[in-house]
Design goal:
8-stranded antiparallel sheet; 3 domains; TIM Barrel; 420 residues; Elongation Factor Tu (Ef-tu), domain 3; 8-stranded parallel β-barrel; 10 helices; 25% strand
């Protein structure tokens, strides 16, 4: 049973998360967590939060994941017995020195995403140190995560895996950023990020006679807005990625063997928490109840769009986060819509798992290390042996195609630019 883990920056958000079905909630201990500008919780608040959480049969994790100096560790060392006594189940930490301290106090040690855990061997090492769980790096793809969970299962490992499935994405690897500190002396790694990355930026090039870089363009003014796209829109927030939203990929995530799905957002409003938890709770429960007949509900995305968001992307799960170059003059947009699940040689039919609508007449591109790159116009489709004209996102669909495809080949829909 996968855990749905929700954020809470205050008691209103805590209640919002629990009432909408969170299995666990994570909160910040004041002064030692990565959201110092959120309301956060005192030691006494943890006692009350734990009581409320347990009324719902849920777990409570406390974030202590800033950079720690000796004085910080010594202060936390005095607080940990109270965190345990007051009913918290575990702490989220980014300094591995805290693993021992957590275990000594009977608390689960969850290693933060800031540790940048990217491989099976790191997980085994963290397990030997006593860690109960590790939050995997946001830069991993779903295929890489699946490979890690398979190896953990094969090795009979007990360490749990957690991944972010919704919320803000940071431009820096695992959130380890120095931009705020460099500009304002306010350290992101100590929870005090002022988010200069979210501002609009201009990029300029200063001429230097010693530079080897030569400007061959016809434009002498090398200060410009990033960037003028093919549709004449301007992309000025080039440090600011879209939010992550994986609501369309719940089946793949559950099948990957991940132990906990984490929603980002301790600094966001209670309505954001309530909506995100409600939507993902419905999707997870629906899939677990009847995987074979699970169907994605487009209304879920509509609900997520109603609360604060910066637009949605799928992070690194399926490819590098999408960027549009002003130099891209192709007639089609390649939209990532599916993966090949199987190919049946005798009848020349491919089974696709789709995360966008697909219809007869659509032109698709299939790419893989063995398959190469194939374009194909869909002439017929079936679901459960019945011919269909259109398949909705979240389906497994069969298409007739003569050329052999391979499992995990990527499938793109080619969309004429003028129709975008």
């Amino acid at each position: 049973m996968v855990e749905l883990l929700a954020p809470a920056g205050n008691f209103i958000s805590l209640a919002s998360a629990l009432k909408n079905g969170a299995d666990a909630v994570y909160i910040g201990l004041e002064d030692v967590n990565m959201r110092i500008n959120a309301s956060n919780f005192s030691l006494e608040d943890i006692r009350k939060a734990s009581e409320i959480t347990k009324e719902y049969g849920a777990k409570l994790y406390v974030c202590t994941n800033t950079i720690m100096k000796d004085e910080d560790v010594e202060k936390l060392q005095q607080q940990l017995p109270y965190i345990k006594e007051y009913g918290a189940d575990g702490i989220i930490l980014s300094d591995i020195a805290l693993i021992d301290l957590a275990c000594e106090n009977g608390l689960e040690a969850h290693v933060s995403v800031q540790e940048n855990t990217t491989n099976f061997y790191a997980l085994k090492t963290l397990e030997k140190l006593g860690a109960k769980r590790a939050i995997l790096s946001r830069e991993l793809s779903l295929d890489e995560i699946m490979e890690i969970t398979k190896k953990l299962k094969k090795s009979n490992s007990s360490i749990e895996t957690e991944v972010f499935i919704h919320g803000a994405m940071c431009m820096a690897i695992s959130g380890r950023c120095f931009l705020s500190y460099g500009l304002y002396g306010r350290s992101a790694n100590c929870g005090d990020c002022l988010q200069p990355c979210r501002k609009e930026w201009r990029l300029s090039f200063e001429e230097d006679e010693n530079d080897d870089v030569i400007n061959f363009s016809e434009c002498d003014d090398e200060s410009f807005i990033i960037s003028n796209s093919y549709d004449d829109s301007y992309r000025t927030n080039f440090f600011s990625p879209k939010d992550m939203a994986l609501i369309e990929h719940i089946p793949e995530l559950i099948e990957a063997g991940i132990d906990s799905f984490k929603i980002e957002g301790r600094a966001r409003s209670p309505d954001y928490v309530a909506t995100a938890v409600k939507v993902y709770r419905e999707a997870i429960d629906l899939y677990l109840k009847d995987p074979e007949n699970y169907k994605y509900n487009p209304q879920w995305m509509e609900e997520l769009m109603k609360v604060f968001n910066r637009g949605f992307d799928t992070g690194f799960y399926f490819n590098i986060p999408h960027e549009i170059s002003e130099n891209n003059q192709s007639k089609f947009i390649k939209k990532d819509i599916a993966k090949v699940v199987n190919y049946y040689n005798k009848i020349k039919v491919a089974e696709l798992r789709i995360w966008d609508d697909l219809a007869v007449g659509d032109e698709i591109m299939i790419q893989g290390p063995t398959t190469g790159s194939i374009t194909h116009v869909i002439e017929s489709m079936q679901i459960d042996g019945k011919a269909i004209e259109k398949a909705e996102k979240g389906s497994n669909v069969a298409i007739a195609i003569d050329e052999k495809l391979r499992e995990s080949d990527f499938v793109y829909k080619l969309i004429p630019r003028e129709e975008k």
